[in-house]
Amino acid sequence: xxxxxxxxxxxxxxxxxxxxxxxxxxxxxxxxxxxxxxxxxxxxxxxxxxxxxxxxxxxxxxxxxxxxxxxxxxxxxxxxxxxxxxxxxxxxxxxxxxxxxxxxxxxxxxxxxxxxxxxxxxxxxxxxxxxxxxxxxxxxxxxxxxxxxxxxxxxxxxxxxxxxxxxxxxxxxxxxxxxxxxxxxxxxxxxxxxxxxxxxxxxxxxxxxxxxxxxxxxxxxxxxxxxxxxxxxxxxxxxxxxxxxxxxxxxxxxxxxxxxxxxxxxxxxxxxxxxxxxxxxxxxxxxxxxxxxxxxxxxxxxxxxxxxxxxxxxxxxxxxxxxxxxxxxxxxxxxxxxxxxxxxxxxxxxxxxxxxxxxxxxxxxxxxxxxxxxxxxxxxxxxxxxxxxxxxxxxxxxxxxxxxxxxxxxxxxxxxxxxxxxxxxxx
Length: 427
Known about the structure:
Blueprint: H1 39-50, E1 55-60, H2 67-80, E2 84-85, E3 90-91, H3 98-116, H4 123-133, E4 136-137, H5 139-142, E5 158-159, H6 164-182, E6 186-191, H7 198-207, E7 217-223, H8 225-232, H9 235-238, E8 246-248, H10 254-268, H11 281-291, H12 295-309, H13 319-334, H14 340-350, H15 357-364, H16 368-380, E9 384-390, E10 393-398, H17 410-413
Parallel strand pairs: 1-7, 1-8, 2-6, 3-6, 4-5, 6-7
Antiparallel strand pairs: 9-10
């Protein structure tokens, strides 16, 4: 029996076709084989994976352009060629030190070998790995307790003397045995490097430089453009990355977005039902133009609008209904929460993909010192975030949903009363 997900049954889908979750190697409503596009980037990654000896590759871009899905698909293709890769990407945490970074990598090896029930390593090596991850880690020995990747705390044994060098040697031992089994190098995918403060990222990569040169491992690091700039500014680290550069993901084209959505709806349709596409081509083009092809923001906008407008029957969103619905959502979410002058700063920012304090001051006539204060207030309430740094300049971007303020509503078209309250008046 098909399990149905709320309102999506009305449209003939098992679940939300606009989900922003990345495609996974295994599991998930959408199979990894539904991936589409990014041919050049996939070829680059697969070329790295096929090279002997190991590599270090950065995959960078704005939030929501599909970085994790891209790397997961490349890893899926590598699995088809016999490579071993960890079951899931490793989500790096801001409280990790060099030793906990390696320990979490070892746990990823362990969980993958255990789940696949494969004899990738010798029995004694597996038992040694299992014993390590079952230990309670002594905070004095490792600087911090092991992060949320899932070490077992039930066994009260403690590690007192294990060094980073010993952990690195153990990783190399495991990789050597895996290669003896598969004849291929190992691939490890680290995610969310943008969560690390710049100073933490810099120190961590300096400390782990030797680990990242472990023979026969292909390391893939995923983060935003600030991560790329930071790593490139560390000579000892940038010199060991693949060709000294990164794969920088651009946004997708309209045709690519349209094709991806078509695949999703066909994959998630309920076989016995006719399905309804919840938007017109003009509506899709409107939201595409707003976000410049950022697939996560497009998916989130469509999902939000459909959920907000649907009651007892499917509704097809045209351009104007989409705009009215999303503007109503954002007005309700933020109205009354932001000071008037902060709203002026917000609207100056929302009209740009990224903006500096200097640009906002010039466009609004607000003193730069005051702009900084308002930006901090907006950052605290989740309206803006730091996108990247270039020297002393900070480049800010708005929380993606706030772009809905730029959509023209029916009332805008009818020259609505300018005295009416609401964030929409500050466009």
